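Cross-check.
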Amino acid sequence: MASKDPDDEQVRFNFNSFSYSIVTIFIVLTAENWNGLLAPYIYKDGWGASIYFVSLIIFGNLMLLNLFLAILLNFISDNLDSDEDEDSKKE
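Predicted model, tokenized:
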């Protein structure tokens, strides 16, 4: 049997197409096994890949947090406005 060369191994999550890229970034943003995803890129591209993945986690999670907070604050402000309108109608 021939031994497998690590360079010949196909990485399941990659940046070769747009759809694979979206799935790969989603996995990194959810922080689900992102270090296992990072290992082949460190082997292939060097330590610059770790800077990319760590910055993607930090900035991506900040963006998702801001999006969640904006939706939450919008919901709260809409409910407070409707409650104030009902109180003014009761008086």
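The chain has one domain: 18-90. DSSP finds three helices and no strands in the chain. Passed to J.P. for a second look.
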